[in-house]
Amino acid sequence: MRTSRSSRALPALLATAAVAATLTIPATVPAIGQNRPESILPPGFGDPNPAPSAAPARPRPRAPAPAATPTPSGSTGQATAPAGQAVPPPAVAPLPGAPLPTDLPTPDATPTPLTTPPSPTDFAAFVRADTPSYARRSLDRVGVAGPAEGAMAPNAFGRSDGRFLETLMHRLRAPVASRWVSIALRRALMAELDTPRGVGGADFAAERAWLLVRMGESVAARAMAQAVDTEDYTPKLFEAAMQAALATGDPAGLCPAAEAGAALGRERGWVLARAICAGLSGTRARAEPMFAAVRKDRVASGIDLLLAQKLVGSNGRGRQAVTVDWDSTPMLTAWRYGLAMAAGVEIPESLLSESAPAVQGWRALSASLTPGVRAPAAELAAARGILSSAALVDLYAAVDAGDDQLPAAASVARTVRTAFEGNDATARAAALRKLWDEPTGYERRYARLVLTAGASARIPTTLDRPDTDRLIASMLSAGLDTPALRWRDKAARGSTGWAMLTLVDPNAPAVGYGDVSAYVPANDPQGVKQRMFFAALAGLGRLSSGDIGQGAKALGVPIAATDSWSRAIAQAAADGEPGTVVLLAATGMQSRSWAGVSPAALYHICAAMREVGMVGEARMIAAEAIARS
Asked: CA–CA separation, 29 vs 308, rounded Å?
């Protein structure tokens, strides 16, 4: 195995894509009907103070937005990738604004401040006044990456109403069933997007960051929160930024906004963050009275306060050591997770095992954990699309090269090395089977297919008695359709491998309902795989209308029936809005497994993605449905 790709794994991940309410992290998914992210502080801190009324947004000159680029066409197999009830508009109103001037000053060597700087004691106002207009980021287009980095085009959400999009994002339960849909959703959320009508740019960025946090995409969420200038933060973005900073285990990232956050209605998370930032800056004389006030006002107590003191003491200027005892801690919160990670405090496995799925993604992306500790979480992250196959292989290469690693992770790393570098194809194939057979969980079994995609691509088609179905599924889990298609003649007609290759082959011969009837896998007593195969072929446009009608009737797949969700995704496809299509596709896949995704939903998703040019992604989703159903 090579370790040289490690330096490229995280940028590639980010490109393909890298509070007044409490984010507790229970084993179940947090409530979705709430209007905004829950406060990071757990029960026991008392009732929060009433939120202040919204203040008018300060109009300021903004640089003109560049021209929108065309929506990217569907990729090949190397792509980086029901029905919901009607929901009310979000409670947060759009920010008020005023027409902006168009005669912006031209940048020169010594830009002139737009206004007279205020007193230096008002540091935030001083920065606003001293920053030239061309250095400020516009709220008309906000994001992290563009099409050149693998993200979607600025007009990915087209003419969709921003309040509708925000509601979908806020109520989406993550993770979704499909790895490939999750990858496509990350690409949409991280894109430099034109702010849709009906919402403010900062609030729209906040909803995107908050959804990325819940998906386990902590690094991407932090980048999204930082894509808006701190002076333009809204209450919603203050909340999302705190969640993103804690998810990355970097509470110091709160410091640029701590003063403004603490002044925003005295929200207790920001009050404590202000004290932490004072301590981290080394100003003990300022930090100690703040912590005294926190204790006196009962802003925080118990382990939440201990972790904050531990973090401040870890900078080498603390007066005494702080011991953190988790015994009486009932649950893991984002606050406790973020401060524990930053302070180097080990979190008990009992709390981690009962936490929300997003925590595994946060740990998989954490640079503060050793490769061996990250490995179990990284496998789940790869199955959910957070990590690529190459990144997961590089992680196990680091485990294999390390001296002080966990035995279980080290054993897997040795087997992975054999799968890539075994003496012959027979030895490599045996290592692959060992890796595939070992896990027992649904997600971990698929994660091993993702892990071994590159090794599977190195198995020659001349191997005696190969495990063709799993070799093909492994390669397609990482989008390696070209090496997978080498097995076209080896996959028997009617096998699962044959069905997957039929779905992804762009040059496949004509397909009829007879091919659907021929696919009757032995491990599919309920006929789920066959119905998924039919729905995917129909959605990809591979069947005639007559065959679609025959299959729908014979297999009981109501693809002609419509509801609010199917009509919405069809309309988004007709309007050429790939971002809206992907967001609605994720809405239709709100399930921890493919068992919760209906064949009819797969049909509508594949058809809509094909119509907006995401043919490669649609094919990979179709193959994933066969592999994981």
From this structure: 27
